From TrEMBL:
Pfam families: ELFV_dehydrog, ELFV_dehydrog_N. It catalyses: L-glutamate + NADP(+) + H2O = 2-oxoglutarate + NH4(+) + NADPH + H(+); L-glutamate + NAD(+) + H2O = 2-oxoglutarate + NH4(+) + NADH + H(+). Belongs to the Glu/Leu/Phe/Val dehydrogenases family. CDD domains: NAD_bind_1_Glu_DH. Gene3D superfamilies: Leucine Dehydrogenase, chain A, domain 1 (3.40.50.10860), NAD(P)-binding Rossmann-like Domain (3.40.50.720). It comes from Gigaspora margarita. Keywords: Oxidoreductase. This is Glutamate dehydrogenase. InterPro entries: Aminoacid_DH-like_N_sf (IPR046346), Glu/Leu/Phe/Val/Trp_DH (IPR006095), Glu/Leu/Phe/Val/Trp_DH_C (IPR006096), Glu/Leu/Phe/Val/Trp_DH_dimer (IPR006097), Glu/Leu/Phe/Val_DH_AS (IPR033524), Glu_DH (IPR014362), NAD(P)-bd_dom_sf (IPR036291), NAD_bind_Glu_DH (IPR033922).
Length: 516
């Protein structure tokens, strides 16, 4: 059934590709809402005339919008970003004043708070942050997280600054967000993204609390915090774990097995991952733990490859101590960082940055499945090439939604001021021990201590977060699959259709004020 769908949709894709190629000639490159076409420095995956990241998200949106049953009025309202903040502020660094530029974009405030990460990278600009904010709107809808979409960033390479300087920049950016009401547990709740982590989130929270000393829920102004500062167990690994759950779900579908020839057993998968940061590392760890073979990892300096499988923690420790994979024993070093994407494997997981698969390398991709852990790794034209080659794409807005799902759990924990499981763990264990005793008496057999421990164990915070995330990913994958089959469309378009319809239900249900 799905195979037939692919053949049919390939014909549509061929048409779409031809039309897209025609539309995106170089002289059309400045069409995207006044932003110039964004080509990441040194990115050789994309042709110059390929659309910017923001334009790409809009193209994916438009393709799905036409298939959804949503009115044009609502669609145009949904597509346009609600508000944008651009700030510049001075920071004194080594006796010199540097002007730092930061952004925060609220793409859709149909639900509050809005949610989205904060990125520290030199490529951060208005169009990139807007594209990422739009993806957050649709991502939250797909996993039924009741938030609007946002994103922020500062255009710096944090590696060029000392820790103390990064702290000053982060705190100063937060002051700007506080002054302009672009942060708060009920309005806008940032999280980590590229170049930021728990440390930066702690600084953001601490700065916010200086401005709101009496706000009882102030700790919920940001997620991805360290555990002692109100973070939730499982947030660190959540995006990578969600990537694992999502790919596991798709390979379990019979139509996917038929199309790819894969068995559905994780142990049979050979996986390549591009990007060995927070998302890539954890995705690799969970696949390794479950028996898959990670045969390649790509980083910005080079890639490492071993067809017999790589040891993830050895790689991580090596790179952490030396700053690079170069010189790593028992692996092949792939010098061109983009080449790792072109090696043969079952599942290719881009987990670094946007626009890594473009027109220049799409036809060289040999994976059976591309699982998009990064945001926007595939350009729309490359997307069509991959589909025409019969490669299944599990799209970013679905596959990497584990991060925002667990951020939602952290926010709920912060509002309830209590660790998950605190009130129920012991009670559950007591109830279960009574059942075990009853069963033991009736069947006249005693369970071993290990068996008893397994049965009686009450859920702690990690158990609850993992199971909530797993359930969320299973539902979101199955909803996407259902739409793909019923409408005879690819998974990305299906995910967008579902998201658009869910966001539209909120817009239309609440009415539109001051439109006329
Ligand atoms: P990170 O900064 O922790 O890791 C990114 C890694 O990619 C770094 O190790 C970096 O060196 C590497 N990299 C950069 N350029 C590269 C290149 N050209 N080739 C190979 N590797 C390269 O960031 P992260 O949080 O892991 O985010 C990665 C992606 O996942 C981003 O697209 C981000 O938006 C997306 N994402 C992150 C989260 C999250 O919870 N952190 C959630 C959803 C989506």
């Amino acid at each position: 059934m799905l195979l037939r769908n692919f053949k049919k949709s390939n014909m549509i894709n061929a048409f779409y590709l031809a039309r897209a190629l025609k539309t995106f000639r170089p002289h059309h490159q400045f069409l995207c809402r006044g932003y110039s076409t964004h080509i990441a420095t040194g990115n050789t995956a994309c042709e110059d005339h390929e659309p910017s990241f923001l334009k790409s998200v809009e193209m994916y949106f438009d393709k799905a919008a036409g298939i959804s049953g949503v009115s044009q009025k609502t669609l145009s309202h949904m597509k346009a970003p609600d508000c944008m903040l651009k700030v510049t502020f001075p920071i004194e660094i080594k006796d010199k004043v540097e002007i730092i530029t930061g952004f925060r974009v609220h793409h859709s405030r149909h639900m509050l708070p809005v949610k989205g990460g904060i990125r520290f990278a030199t490529d951060v600009d208005e169009q990139e942050v807007t594209a990422l904010a739009a993806l957050m709107t649709y991502k939250c809808a797909i996993v039924d997280v009741p938030f609007g979409g946002a994103k922020g960033g500062i255009s710096i390479d944090p590696k060029n600054y000392t820790d103390a300087e990064v702290e000053r920049i982060t705190r100063r950016y937060t002051v700007e967000l506080c002054q302009k009401s672009f942060i708060g547990p009920g309005t806008d709740v940032p999280a980590p993204d590229v170049g930021t982590g728990a440390r930066e989130m702690a600084w953001i929270m601490d700065t916010y609390r200086q401005f709101h000393p009496n706000e009882v829920d102030s700790i919920g102004c940001v997620t991805g915090k360290p555990i002692p500062l109100g973070g939730v167990r499982g947030r660190n690994e959540s995006t990578g774990l969600g990537v694992y759950y999502g790919i596991r779900e798709f390979v379990s579908y019979p139509e996917v097995q038929k199309h790819t020839g894969l068995s559905g057993d994780i142990k049979d998968l050979r996986i390549i991952i591009q990007g060995f940061g927070k998302v890539g590392y954890w995705a690799a760890k969970f696949f390794e733990q479950n028996g898959a073979k990670i045969i390649g990892i790509g980083e910005k300096e080079c890639g490492v490859y071993n067809p017999n499988g790589l040891n993830i923690d050895k790689l991580f420790n090596y790179r952490r101590s030396r700053g690079s994979f170069l010189g790593m024993p028992n692996v092949d070093i792939i010098e061109d960082p983009l080449e790792i994407l072109e090696l043969e494997c079952d599942v290719l997981i881009p987990a670094a940055l946007e626009r890594q698969i473009g027109l220049r390398n799409a036809d060289k991709i040999k994976a059976k499945i591309v699982g998009e852990a990064a945001n926007g790794p595939t350009t729309p034209l490359a997307n069509e090439v991959l589909l025409m080659k019969g490669i299944l794409i599990i799209p970013d807005l679905l596959l990497n939604a584990g991060g925002v799902t667990v951020s939602y759990f952290e926010w709920l924990k912060n509002l309830s001021h209590m660790r998950f499981g605190r009130m129920t763990k012991k009670w559950d264990e007591l109830g279960k021990s009574q059942i075990v005793e009853l069963v033991e008496r009736n069947v006249a057999r005693k369970l071993s201590e290990t068996e008893k421990k397994q049965v009686v164990h009450g859920a702690n915070e990690t158990d609850l977060v993992y199971s909530g995330l797993e359930d969320t990913m299973i539902s979101a994958c199955s909803e996407t699959r259902r739409t793909a089959i019923s409408k005879d469309i690819d998974y990305r378009t299906a995910a967008f259709v579902n998201a658009i319809e869910k966001v539209a239900a909120v817009y239309e249900g609440s009415g539109i004020m001051f439109m006329n």
